[in-house]
Inverse folding.
């Protein structure tokens, strides 16, 4: 027997299609039934790679007796938080206000009008660890709904009012100067773990946006401690168990302070952002280990997370064969069986397996020691062959489940990383993958000109959110810079215009997360924090600022700054929640290096492009044109009147409203770009 979730495309919802629970997906049908039968809604929110979501399903949602109580007293709604970040955000705020903490699985009880009145996260099937058993909780909530309705409604009204207040953002008194960046650096550095990198204590999350800002701050100030903290963090993560030492790519986070034991799921958004971060660190510091990690991470995405049509999948599970991490861990005997004792010896030492088990009687591979004299730029030759053999054997294991839905915003992050890395590393395959992904999203994930949120098995649905528009537009700007094909810039501008039309609100001088054409919820969500995924507003601001430089469209900058100004005080005081906003403000402060490349052919531009893209210039915008095609230059001030000098490929560099003399020699261009520091 299946329930209604069998009609859905979300892998997470489909995992629950055989539960005895009478599940509904989020929508009018569920709320209409709740009103008709005067029952509260039981809202359960999770995602496919969530370990405790699977635990609660096994313990409660697959239990016939518990399901019977749920079906008798409630209308049960299951939501994939990755498909519906609006629903997740609203009710997570409610749970946090009620309990002081949040997380997934999230369990919230709502009135038939959608107002929350009680909530929490994971509940066990019986009382334990100070948590009420789920059946006891269900009976208590049902009894309260039946006998103390006035209390329940009053509570829901108060919570809904609090949620509406939370959507308001007061104007900040802090001016948007570089003092905001210095204050943010001081806050982040005070919280840093100097020995292991990352933030102090455990668990440890990668937080790529914060380290991206720290890298930019080093570029701006030359502060040696900023560099040291970035390098310590990136090096320790790359050598830790949080990084898949055989297959590449990063797990979600580390449960300890040393980056050793991860939560083993792999998320597209982490790996897209971290690939970009390691690329930028390689450009900044020249450490070849960072280039290797960037390429291995992108290779992992292309190998294991890419649909043949060009979209990128969302996640890989932590569990296989019912055990967390089973796919990734090894015993010493298993390694010896694969490699033979002689070849195994250096491998066991390199990955610290010779020190004894470090995870439930087995070993997570990691490289905690200082680098050997030959360095770890590439996996040292003495273990490269061992790594290949172990990887091939691991491929024959039962793989973790994969969430193969395609989300527009997360695809934007990965597409952007591929476009950036392709142009910086001269990897045509990465550029081709970015182009194919951009084509896929624009072809398969739009209906009647409206971008859609999610795609799976040929079906796209759900109106896209602000983060989708912003991150896809940002990626398209990078695809344009990697190819100089005008189509991608025009598409980015079209998305930016739609973004302003659908999500901008003059009354709040900022963006909402849902469009004006979105279904009505109890509040219109407006997230202002960069979490694991960048905030839609922060990426929108950054993208509009980049587009203003390219197109000269003044409205882009005025809207971006109007949205950024209220964030000044928050960025200064709570930097860890505003990493992408800080990067956008760093671009806003500038100076922005504007580069125009023109030449008779793409091939003639390559030496100049290598100089532009082969150095760390985070506040840089590049436009390019080949041949005499006027359509490539139309409407782009950087390219107007710019022609090759003496028929040679030519670069024009401007900053602070002043332009340098055009150059045709890569060395002369390098001097001009280095002067941009």
């Amino acid at each position: 027997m299946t329930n209604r979730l069998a009609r859905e495309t979300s892998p997470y919802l489909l995992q629950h299609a055989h539960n005895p629970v009478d599940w509904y997906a989020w929508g009018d049908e569920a709320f209409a039934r709740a009103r008709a039968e005067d029952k509260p809604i039981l809202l359960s929110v999770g995602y496919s790679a969530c370990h405790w979501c699977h635990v609660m399903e096994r313990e409660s949602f697959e239990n016939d007796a518990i399901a019977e109580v749920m079906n008798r007293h409630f209308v049960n709604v299951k939501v994939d938080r990755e498909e519906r970040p609006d629903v997740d955000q609203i009710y997570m705020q409610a749970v946090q206000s009620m309990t002081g903490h949040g997380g997934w699985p999230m369990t919230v009880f709502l009135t038939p009008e959608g107002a929350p009145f009680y909530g929490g996260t994971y509940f066990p099937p019986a009382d334990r660890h100070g948590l009420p058993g789920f059946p006891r909780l269900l009976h208590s909530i049902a009894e309260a709904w039946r006998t103390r309705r006035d209390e329940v409604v009053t509570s829901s009204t108060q919570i809904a009012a609090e949620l509406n207040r939370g959507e308001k953002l007061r104007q900040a008194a802090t001016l948007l100067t570089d003092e905001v960046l210095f204050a943010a650096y001081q806050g982040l550095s005070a919280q840093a773990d100097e020995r292991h990198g990352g933030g102090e204590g455990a668990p440890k999350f990668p937080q790529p946006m914060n380290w991206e800002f720290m890298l930019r701050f080093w570029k701006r100030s030359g502060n040696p401690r900023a560099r040291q903290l970035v390098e310590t963090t990136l090096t320790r993560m790359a050598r830790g168990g949080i990084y898949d030492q055989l297959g590449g790519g990063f797990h979600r986070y580390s449960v300890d302070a040393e980056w050793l034991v991860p939560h083993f799921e792999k998320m597209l958004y982490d790996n897209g952002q971290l690939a970009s971060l390691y690329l930028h660190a390689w450009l900044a510091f020249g450490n070849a280990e960072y280039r290797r990690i960037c390429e291995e991470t992108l290779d992992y995405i292309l190998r294991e997370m890419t649909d043949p049509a060009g979209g990128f999948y969302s996640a890989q599970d932590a569990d296989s064969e019912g055990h967390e991490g089973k796919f990734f861990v090894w015993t010493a005997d298993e390694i010896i069986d694969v490699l033979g004792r002689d070849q195994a010896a250096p491998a066991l030492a390199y990955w610290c397996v010779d020190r004894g088990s470090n995870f439930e009687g087995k070993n997570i591979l990691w490289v905690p020691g200082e680098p050997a004299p030959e360095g770890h730029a590439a996996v040292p030759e003495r273990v490269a062959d061992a790594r290949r053999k172990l990887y091939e054997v691991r491929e024959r294991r039962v793989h973790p489940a994969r969430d193969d839905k395609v989300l527009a915003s997360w695809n934007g992050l990965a597409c952007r990383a591929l476009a950036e890395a392709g142009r910086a590393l001269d990897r045509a395959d990465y550029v081709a993958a970015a182009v194919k992904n951009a084509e896929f999203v624009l072809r398969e994930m739009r209906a009647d000109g409206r971008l859609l949120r999610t795609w799976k098995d040929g079906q796209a649905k759900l109106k896209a959110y602000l983060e989708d528009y912003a991150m896809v537009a940002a990626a398209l700007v990078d695809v344009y810079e990697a190819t100089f094909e005008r189509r991608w810039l025009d598409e980015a501008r079209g998305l930016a215009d739609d973004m302003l039309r659908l999500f901008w609100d003059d009354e709040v001088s900022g963006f909402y997360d849902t469009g004006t054409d979105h279904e009505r919820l109890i509040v219109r969500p407006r997230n202002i924090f960069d979490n694991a995924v960048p905030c839609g507003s922060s990426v929108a601001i950054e993208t509009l600022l980049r587009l203003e430089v390219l197109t000269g469209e003044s409205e882009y900058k005025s809207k971006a700054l109007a949205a950024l100004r209220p964030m000044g005080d928050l960025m200064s005081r709570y930097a860890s929640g505003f990493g992408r906003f800080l990067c956008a403000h760093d671009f806003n402060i500038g100076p922005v290096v504007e580069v125009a490349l023109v030449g008779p052919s793409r091939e003639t531009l390559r030496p100049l492009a290598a100089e532009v893209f082969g150095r760390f210039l985070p506040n840089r915008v590049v436009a390019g044109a080949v041949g005499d095609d006027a359509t490539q230059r139309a409407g782009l001030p950087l390219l107007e009147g710019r022609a090759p000098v003496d028929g040679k490929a030519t670069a024009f560099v401007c900053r602070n409203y002043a332009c340098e003399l055009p150059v045709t020699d890569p060395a002369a261009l390098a001097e001009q770009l280095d002067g941009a520091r």
User: Anything to note?
Assistant: The longest strand covers residues 450-456.
